Amino acid sequence: MPATLISGVAIAATIRDEISIEVSRLKDQHSLIPGLVTILVGDDPASQSYVRAKNATARVLGIHSQQITLPAHTSESELLQLVHTCNRDSVFHGILVQLPLPSHINEANILFAISPEKDVDGFHPVNVGKLMLGEPCLLPCTPQGILELLERTNISTSGAEVVIVGRSNIVGKPIANLMLQKRPGGNATVTVCHTRTRDMAFHTRRADILIVAAGVANMIKAEHIKEGAVVIDVGVNRIGQTAGGKAILAGDVDFADVVNKAGSITPVPGGVGPMTITMLMKNTVQAAKQAVGLL
Ligand SMILES: Nc1nc(=O)c2c([nH]1)NC[C@@H]1CN(c3ccc(C(=O)N[C@@H](CCC(=O)O)C(=O)O)cc3)C=[N+]21
C-alpha cells in the first residue's frame, strides 16, 4: 500500500484561514495591522521567487508587507543601516533578511542586528537560546512548520525514534531541540546525522519519524527507511528546468523509491515549503501582538 500523502498545501491553507481571521480581528478590535518587511540582496532567481511568495502570501492574509531589494554589491554597513532603520519603524513588526547573502556580507552580523522582537525567522541568538531553554519565543519557520504538520496529522512524537539528517542552524539543530523538549510535540528520542555520520542507513532505518534536511537531491532511498515510517522531506533542490523555463524541484528523499515503504510522506513541492511560508505569517502576527502588549 502506498504511503499516505501529508499535504503541506492543504494544512497550510487551513492555518492561513485561521491567520486571516485573526488578522481581521486585530484590525477590527485593536486597529492593529501586522507588518512584514522582506529584504533581498542581489538577484538570485530562487531567492527572488521565495521572497515574492512571502509577500504575496502576506497580502492575501491582510498583513502589510513591503519588499526592499538591494543590489548584490550592497556593503555590510549599508545593509546594517537598513536593518537598524527597520528596527525603529513601528509599521514593521517582522523583519526578514533573505538568505543566503552575498559572500562579502557576514550573515551573522546582519542576523544579530535584527531586533529579537522582530526576528520572525527565529535566527537571532536570543530566540535560538530561548528555543533551547524551552522558553516562549519566535520559532524558526521550517521547524515550526514540521511540528504543525505532525500535530495536525495526529502523529505523536512522544517516545518516538526521530532521526534527523542535516545539522543546519535553520532546520537540523532547532528541530532536534524542539523534538527533545518535555512538552507535546516533543518527548522524542532524537538522533542527528550529518556528512560525517559513518553508517547513515543504520540510523535512519531505526526512525519512526525521519526528517531529512541535507540539501542533497534524492539521497534517501527505500533501503534507508523502516517499513511504515513517517518521512518528512525538507529538501528543495532545483534539478533542472522545463522547456518553459520553470524550475524542476526534487526533495532530499527519492519519493518514487520510498513511497511504497513509508507509512506517510511529505511531497516536494507541496509539503514542508508551504508550511514554512505560513509560519512566517504566523510569526509576524505573533510579533505584532507582542509589540502592542496583546500577548
Ligand atoms: N531568511 C530566510 N528565511 C527563510 O525561511 C529562508 C531563507 N532565508 N532562504 C531560503 C530558505 C528556503 N525557504 C523556502 C520557503 C518556501 C519554500 C516553498 O514554498 N517551496 C514550495 C515550492 C516553491 C517553488 O516552486 O520554488 C514547495 O515546496 O511546495 C521553499 C523554501 C525559506 N528559506
UniProtKB/TrEMBL annotation:
UniProt key word Transmembrane: no
Pathway listed: One-carbon metabolism; tetrahydrofolate interconversion
Pfam families (alphabetical): THF_DHG_CYH, THF_DHG_CYH_C
Role, per record: Catalyzes the oxidation of 5,10-methylenetetrahydrofolate to 5,10-methenyltetrahydrofolate and then the hydrolysis of 5,10-methenyltetrahydrofolate to 10-formyltetrahydrofolate.
InterPro entries in the record: Aminoacid_DH-like_N_sf (IPR046346), NAD(P)-bd_dom_sf (IPR036291), THF_DH/CycHdrlase (IPR000672), THF_DH/CycHdrlase_cat_dom (IPR020630), THF_DH/CycHdrlase_CS (IPR020867), THF_DH/CycHdrlase_NAD-bd_dom (IPR020631)
Origin organism lineage: Bacteria, Pseudomonadati, Thermodesulfobacteriota, Desulfobulbia, Desulfobulbales
Subunit structure, as described in the record: Homodimer.
Name of the protein in question: Bifunctional protein FolD
Catalyzed chemical reaction(s): (6R)-5,10-methenyltetrahydrofolate + H2O = (6R)-10-formyltetrahydrofolate + H(+); (6R)-5,10-methylene-5,6,7,8-tetrahydrofolate + NADP(+) = (6R)-5,10-methenyltetrahydrofolate + NADPH
Residue ranges constituting the Tetrahydrofolate dehydrogenase/cyclohydrolase NAD(P)-binding domain according to the UniProt record: 140-291
Gene Ontology molecular-function annotations: methenyltetrahydrofolate cyclohydrolase activity; methylenetetrahydrofolate dehydrogenase (NADP+) activity
EC number assigned by the record: 1.5.1.5, 3.5.4.9
Single biological process term from Gene Ontology: tetrahydrofolate interconversion
